[in-house]
Amino acid sequence: MLSGNYKILHNKLVSTIDKDRIFHDSLSLLAYGTDASFYRLIPKIVIKAKDEQEVVFILKHSSALGLAVTFRAAGTSLSGQAVTDSVLVVAGQHWKEYEILDNGNAIRLQPGVLGSRANILLEPYNKKIGPDPASINAAMIGGIAANNASGMCCGTAQNTYKTVKSMRLVFADGAILDTANAESRTHFQKLQPDLIKKIQDLAERAKADTILAERISGKYKMKNTTGYSLNALIDYIDPFEIIEHLMIGSEGTLGFISEISLQTVENHKYKAASLMIFQNVESACRVVSLLKRAPVAAVELIDRSGLRSVENDKGVPSYLKDLDPEACALLVDTRASSSEDLQLQIQAVLNIVKEQSMELPALFTDDPAEYALLWKIRKGLFPSVGAMRQKGTTVIIEDVAFKTEQLAEATLELQKLFAKWRYTEAVIFGHALEGNLHFVFTQNFDSQNEIDRYANFMDDVADLVVKKFDGSLKAEHGTGRNMAPYVEMEWGKEAYGLMKEIKAIFDPKNLLNPGVILNDDPQIHLKNLKPIPSCNPIIDPCIECGFCEPNCVSADYTLSPRHRITVNREISRLVASGQNPAELQLLLDNFQYKADDTCATDGLCALSCPVHIDTGAFVKELRNQRIGKEFRIASWISLHLSFTTFLLRKILLVVRFFQLLLGNKLMSGISSFLRFISQGRIPQWNRFMPGGAKRLKSLESQVASQRKVVYYPSCINRTMGVSSEDYSQEQLSDKIVQLLHKGGFEVIYPEHLQTLCCGMPFSSKGYFDIAKQKGNLLELALAKASENGKWPIVCDMSPCLYTMHENAGKLKSSLKIYEPVEFINDILLSFLKITPTSEPVAVFEVCSMKKMGIENKLTELAQKCAEKVIVPQTNCCGFSGDKGFEIPELNASGLLGLSQQLGPDVKRGYSNSRTCEIGLSLHSGISYQSIVYLVDQVSEAI
Q: Strands (DSSP E) along 555-707, which ranges?
């Protein structure tokens, strides 16, 4: 319950901000209060701010009440800079606007835009943003700027600090500054003359002190995010440029970046990489010095432990398992604007390293798939190592930098510290070209002895980095809480004094993310440590990095996979400890809807998770554990599937009758009323709801041919026909047969078709045994129909095909089962003549295609059939089988902005999942149907 000033603030907030975006229940506070670090602070209030004016409103009222405010974008931060026990403002979902500037030479971005999304937007201009952190697919621009992110290829020349062009800022008192706008600068100077003068005075003092200025300049010749960006004081004269660059890396402690414009850098089209294997770390580091003069974009060091953490991953070179215990790898990357230049650069690199002793010959690959795999190995190292930790331990990543010529010696010294403090599992990797090393180790914080061991180790690391090598304690992950006690040690008293003045100038009340970067508590890095209890084998490997969240359809509606795991871990901890039963009950009260009901269980989270954790599978398991009397209903349906589909067809026909009788508007109103009074038990109707399917036409093929194919119409398409809004009024089962006949194929149906089901409707609800039974019966029927794999098999729903693959038993290898896109692309097109339509079309790659790795085939097929194809940037439609009927809000969240991406010229959309197409049609305003309809429209028999 809120109390005191937090209750007053809440009452102020709800007067202006939608209460659905203000959270103070236990579950939401726990979920949104978690970032990728090993710290945990539970906020009192979480606000999903919608725009700049709301941030101003929050800051003014929080300041008046003396309440601290922390800003959060994606929460992939590793140093504890995005957690708070006060007010948390999340700038993600509503902060995704952008503008391409100067023909791609710059880009304006709001803080909620993903780093990878920015690069996709810039691809047509052969440009990208400079920062390229390993978390770029999950990290948002707000965090990238606030932490001065760099990464693998950008070094210090193309990091956020060096590429910032301008920004809009909200200060602690609510004042707004747009540094790109002369009028805004003039107004701000009149409004805040003291702030401007103090910044100018500070810069003049820093420049005048030549020893200090040289110290600052020298520190930034290597990667450095320890403390504030003091280089802004000596690099710039204009106070607004100084302010801009002080904000970079300030971790939300000086103000809120509501918009930032970045200069872009060239995105070379031609790329190649080589994983070079050396005898040991020392020999690998010696080669790094040689490669400094080579035409390379990146040189990434991976020690033997790091290689071991990924050696069993799919596609990883098998030779990694046989390397010597001391072996070390360098991932060397080179990029060019032409294929010829790339080959010259590859040869130049090989000439430099040819005299070096390597465990295997150096080989470069420019094959996109192999190249991507090498980088996937590197980018997934941190979570992969974390997944291998012992249950109950925390994974910690530290991030230091040395002069390149000191790298070999420093690395060996680090390894000695690991041995001294018994971190035998520690892994070293990093951006060797910049002397930047990351080291990952696991730590148990369940006893004072373990906390002391960690504390002593960190003291030794600080001594090594600062006193022996004068390096950076934080190269690119930000100071946060875990390095705050060591900032003065690294910089010295005078420079640290400048930092304290900077904080006082911008945040005199110390209410913006207090305790981060600057902290007088020498033990702050040992407090508020996050518990990671063992919970379930599926999710135990999770380190809460947040890489999964961009792929989750419910992340902006209720919870993300990381949230679900965090909450379930806390529930498990409370149950095991018996502590705080009231808190446990509060979590349980909200868990069902937010964590279970609204999980689409599409499994896309596993695709972006470096260790492939499928939180959807975990939720299905939870559903399986609570199966009760519903099991009898599910079992009855499975045994009477023919009658069930018949009944559903009739119900859909009745619904269609009333739609024609009442009209869409009245029908929608009645449906909404019935849904309301039934408390959501009656599904939400919409105008794209299909009518009942007609019974299949003769199950005997009308074409006799030497080319045969088994066609399995899914139970969904045997139940659902077309909607009144569909441009083609022929149901899919008929259309597929027409297309197959056009290609000269004889169609074979499996026996007892009306009783067959892949099992997907049952497995998604947790009825695993029933799903397996149905899957086995279907497999036997298909084997018989195909004469044990002699003929190919086509299933008309991509999700059903995925389920068939998942449930496949002993006959899997002998059956050739396709979904329509695969079959048309791989087999049918050779028997058809295609005349592409000039009408622009949209396609949507459903989740099952992505999980099977064939999503590109849908786009490729559409591009053969249409001159212009639009592929919206949307992961999952959120319809999730029947969720679109039960919880239409999930579908709406998943497809937010779809119609804007399509534009006014697109009138037809295509996919390959009937229920997904209903939601896509509703939220785009155009009819989505199977891709089969498009192929049939533009094809003729040869």
A: none
CA dihedral 21, 25, 31, 34 (to 10 degrees): 90
Any residues with CB less than 8 A from the CB of 186 and at least 6 apart, and which?
none
Dihedral through CA 514, CA 519, CA 524, CA 528, nearest 10?
Answer: 0
> What number is the average pLDDT over the span 309-332?
87
Q: Which residue, 895, 898, 879, is CA-closest to 887? A: 879
268/282 Cα distance (integer angstroms): 31
* CATH 3.40.462.10 segments of the chain: 278-473
Is-contact 512 69, C-beta < 8 A? yes
Query: If you ran DSSP here, which 8-state letter would residue 270 be given?
Result: E
Q: What is the pLDDT of residues 776-819, one digit of tens each?
A: 999 999 999 999 999 999 999 999 999 998 877 666 668 999 99
Cβ atoms 530, 481 nearer than 8 A: no
* Residue 703 DSSP symbol: -
* d(C-alpha 92, C-alpha 72), whole Å: 8
Instruction: Please tell me the distance from the alpha carbon of residue 205 to that of residue 236, in angstroms, as a whole number.
Output: 13
Per-residue burial over 370-390, b = 16 or more CB atoms within 10 Å of its CB, e = otherwise:
ebebbbebbbbbbbbbbbbbe
Edge-to-edge strands, sheet with 708-712: 746-748, 708-712, 793-795, 817-818
Q: CB within 8 A of 362, min separation 6: which ones?
A: 274, 276, 332, 350, 353, 354
Quote the CA–CA distance of 865 and 818 in Å, as a whole number. 20
CA 725 to chain centre: 34
Residue 411 CA to residue 426 CA, distance in Å, equals 12
Q: What token pair was written down for 659?
A: 């739609």
Residue 454 has pLDDT above 70, yes or no: yes
Domain 1-267+478-532 belongs to what topology?
3.30.465
Alpha-carbon distance 323 to 425, whole Å?
17
pTM of the model: 0.92
Rounded Cα distance between 137 and 116, Å, is: 5
Is the predicted pLDDT of residue 701 greater than 80, yes or no?
A: no
Does residue 141 sit in helix, strand or coil? helix
* Span(s) in the chain for CATH 3.30.465.10: 1-267+478-532
Q: Which two tokens stand for residue 210?
A: 């030549």
Percent of the chain with pLDDT over 70: 98
Separation of alpha carbons 356 and 282, rounded Å:
12
Q: How far apart are CA 256 and CA 247, in angstroms?
A: 9
Gap between the Cα atoms of 761 and 634, Å rounded? 10
Strand partners, 429: 302, 438
Cross-strand partners of 169: 177, 257
CB atoms within 10 A of CB 196: 19
Q: How sure is the predictor about 378, in pLDDT bands with cuts at 50, 70 and 90?
A: confident
Distance CA 44, CA 276 (A): 50
| Phi-psi map region of 134: left, alpha, beta (phi>0 left; psi -120 to 50 alpha) | alpha
Point out which residues pair with 942 in neighbouring strands.
none
Query: Residue 346 and residue 272: Cα distance in Å, rounded?
Result: 8
Q: How far apart are CA 599 and CA 607, in angstroms?
A: 16
Question: Distance between CA atoms of 57 and 406, rounded to whole angstroms?
Answer: 50
Distance CA 513, CA 493 (A): 23
Task: Give the max Cα distance, the chain.
Answer: 92
Distance CA 313, CA 385 (A): 12
- Identify the residue with better confidence: 664 or 154: 664
The CATH T-level fold of domain 278-473 is Vanillyl-alcohol Oxidase; Chain A, domain 3 (3.40.462)
Q: How far is CA 633 from CA 162, 637, 643, 742, 761, in A?
A: 63, 6, 14, 42, 13
